[in-house]
Specification:
The complex is a heterodimer of chains A (355) and B (134). Chain A has 355 residues and is an alpha/beta fold. Chain A is built from 13 helices and 12 strands. Chain A has a single domain, classed as Rossmann fold (3-Layer(aba) Sandwich), CATH 3.40.50.1820. In chain A, helix 4 links the parallel strand 7 and strand 8. The longest helix of chain A has 24 residues. Chain A is globular and about 80 Å long. Chain B folds into 2 domains: 63 residues, no CATH class; 47 residues. The two termini of chain B are 56 Å apart. Classes of the chains: A alpha/beta (355), B mainly alpha (134). The interface between A and B is large, with 41 and 42 residues.
């Protein structure tokens, strides 16, 4: 092949790659495909029960309720077939439920953590227990969902919670030097009231911008370089697209909840000091007696490990375990190695405690 | 002779050094940027920018809201606040219905304990409401 022909061939290949790249970046792929049934709803919140796998005997008596953050879609737990925590747990005989908080509208701007933890969550739990026909249940809270489940566990210790799993839980805000969000929302620089009164709810775009700004090069450049380098690998492209579909599907955060997150948690660190009050009652972490598994992602830049460690000393649980795993905030549950690392550990821990 | 996949893999890729350079540059930039966004100066600067943009847009937003409110009133249409208040009332109603549902569940459970037997058709329907397939 002579030089001009070679150049034309190179350009044609580049054009094909560019076409594949743009298509991968702009195409939303099917996600959350594990069969499920909506069993309860309240306002924007929906509770789903995953259909039992007909080839697997449902041998765990205690149902598992999954609670994710309030400013992201929960289908990260059921990203795509073969890379779904939900599918994994259903395949091992668990009765799995997922609580989807939904996207708050302007009318929900006054919703706060008390509403989520003491109004919505107990009602969803009641439905879980009624449908499963058990008085006990397990609950997995991830990220902000871990704050909500922790508050619930401390406020309703006699409600049948047998196993509490906290994933990358931002509960302790003592070490402010390690918390970039704490610096950004410091009262000297960040006028919280002005932001909340201007927007009502915290816009999804601002939350997304904040999360991506923690690692700007990785999120805005490296992520796309990874796709470009792997365009010939359909497996990597499919995985990238599924994650990109989730990452770009953002929802706002209720204004009052955002205000509370900044003041009560980031600025005043009330929860871990047992000084947080909800519904006129103090949230006392010492009242948590459920079996506790805390999962820490060692490379987590959103919830650094220091935020999840102190809870272990605060609870009264006789059976508690801290599990550290290499990886990031999302990667430990939705990354390509999660099915070999995090999921089997969670399943093994839960399996012996769900009989 | 056709090239085997092993030979192909060994073929020199002229772009590989560029990729390595790019990755090294991105690594270095990443570390610098993470340090930057972690600094007090960055927090101060972004806070000031956000504050300035909100201050600058408030008069326009307020004027727009006022004009919209007047237009809605002229057209005999509810305002955003009124629609939001209505939605909040709907949510409160849903909460009440959920409370009633919980009480009904308790009554059915008590009945099942006092009169043991196969679950009623009504109880079955309550478990999985029709038309709620995802």
């Amino acid at each position: 092949m002579n030089a001009p022909e070679s150049l034309v061939a190179e350009l044609a290949e580049f054009e094909d790659r560019m076409h594949a790249f743009v298509q991968a970046v702009t195409t939303r792929v099917p996600i959350a495909q594990t069969p499920k049934t909506q069993v309860w709803s309240l306002n924007k919140a929906r509770l789903y029960r995953y259909d039992a796998n007909p080839h697997v005997k449902q041998h765990h008596r205690v149902p598992l309720l999954l609670v994710f953050a309030i400013m992201n879609r929960p289908y990260i737990l059921d990203l795509r077939p073969g890379n779904s925590f939900v599918e994994f747990m259903v395949g091992r005989g668990y009765d799995v439920y997922l609580l989807d908080w939904g996207a708050p509208g302007y009318e929900d701007r006054n919703m706060n953590f008390e509403d989520y933890a003491l109004q919505y969550l107990p009602r969803a739990i009641r439905k879980v227990k009624a449908l499963s026909g058990t008085s006990e249940f397990s609950m997995l809270g991830w990220c902000i969902g871990a704050i909500i489940t922790t508050i619930y566990a401390a406020m309703r210790p006699d409600d049948g919670l047998r196993n509490l799993l906290l994933l990358t839980a931002p509960l302790d805000f003592t070490n402010r030097d390690r918390l970039t969000f704490a610096k950004w929302t410091d009262e000297r620089y960040f006028d919280l009231e002005k932001v909340v009164s201007a927007y009502g709810n915290m816009p999804a775009e601002m939350i997304d911008y904040g999360a991506k700004s923690l690692k700007p090069i990785e999120n805005w450049v490296g992520n796309y370089c990874k796709l470009w380098d792997n365009l010939d690998n359909p497996r990597v492209v499919a995985s990238w697209q599924a994650m990109n579909t989730w990452v770009t599907d953002n929802i706002p955060m209720a204004g009052a909840a955002y205000r509370q997150l900044i003041t009560d948690f980031y600025r005043n660190n009330l929860l871990i000091q047992n000084r947080l009050h909800m519904g006129g009652e103090r949230v006392d972490l010492g009242r948590i007696r459920a079996n506790l598994l805390t999962v820490i992602a060692e490379g987590d830049h959103i919830t650094p490990p220091c935020q999840s460690e102190a809870i272990m000393q605060k609870v009264s649980s006789a059976d508690k375990q801290l599990y550290r795993i290499p990886g990031g905030h999302i990667g430990i549950m939705a990354g390509s190695t999660a099915h070999r690392t995090t999921w089997p550990h969670i399943e093994a821990w839960l399996g012996t405690r769900s009989k | 002779m056709p090239e085997t996949s092993e030979e192909k893999a060994k073929t020199f890729d002229p772009f590989e050094p560029f990729r390595e350079m790019r990755d090294a540059y991105l690594d270095a930039m990443s570390k610098t940027m993470i340090e930057n966004v972690n600094s007090e100066a960055y927090a101060k600067a972004t806070g000031a920018m956000l504050d300035w943009s909100l201050t600058a847009t408030v008069p326009f937003r307020e004027a727009m809201e006022k004009a919209m409110l007047q237009a809605m009133q002229q057209l005999s249409l509810p305002s955003r606040q009124e629609v939001a208040a209505l939605a909040e009332r709907f949510t409160n109603l849903e909460l009440r219905v959920d409370d009633v549902d919980a009480k009904l569940d308790r009554v059915l459970t008590l009945l099942a304990h006092t009169h043991p037997g196969p679950p009623t058709e009504q109880a079955d329907r309550r478990e999985r409401p029709a038309g709620q397939e995802s």
